[in-house]
Prior knowledge:
single chain; alpha/beta; Rossmann fold; 2 domains; six-stranded mixed sheet; four-stranded antiparallel sheet; 20% helix
Amino acid sequence: MRRPRPQTCALLAIVALLATAPTPAAPQAAAPPPPAPPKPVTREVGVDVVSVTAVVFDKAGKIVHGLGPKDVELLEDGVKQDVSYFREASSQGEPSERVPLSIVLVLDTSGSMKQSLRFLQEAVLSFVYKLDDVDRALVVSFNESVKGSADFSGDTDRLERVVEGLQAWGGTSLYDAIQYSLDRIKDQPGRKALIVFSDGADTTSTLGDHEVVDAARAVEATVYCIGFKGQDFGGFRSPRGFLRKIANETGGRYFSPDKVGDLLKVFNEISNELKNHYLLAYTPKRAADGTWRQIELKVDRPGSEVRVRKGYFAVPRRRAAN
């Protein structure tokens, strides 16, 4: 059954606006232009309003529900900020009251995945079937190239066809795939998340791991990473340190299942957590100056643990030319 397309969410007003420079006009030349170089990593984010996604656990590891604005204190570089928006993104409310989620499923389809691809497809589809009506997903597959579906969609039939059509071959452009996914999600409304799955080291990317981590720190998206213990890395560096780093910086989680049969459980855990985030927004008290700002969220619940992204780059918004 196809999901109905939801109305545009009013949450757009509080989400951090992202801007890019206008595209220059094409040169008037008789000869065709040379091939474009790889798109550079950008860390420019307009900082009028900063949105923060948080998940709160108790001592037993269970998600804490029912918090309100008075239960939290948000700090930027140690200075308390005024929270202008606070909502619990629980799936228990009416659809019109839920905070929409835009998610990119970043899936390794390199040659080493031939024996495991079917397990990955089943786990991904179980996740897709649990999306709420207000949610939208995009599928990005990568081997030595990167391919993304046309647009974000809540149509489970459409998403199912894309996932079922994945085929395993070629090398592994993990870093390029994550950068591509960040570019696709940065302008989406509401909460934003990436789920990255890879079973091996990067072998064919044009970008480096540090560039991609910095790019992730500049986009208001939570990154969940799954590093499956697949085939031997063949002399290449293991991606697990990178995956753990990018998840930690963005307030996500890193998973390292021992067998493909555990993927279903991992995707279910991620699905449950995404349905129980808190979303906050604030206007920084200090003007944007291009520096890195550290974010800390304190919760008035003894023994509770909070997971949020570490911070953001406070780059002034770029103005379009008249």
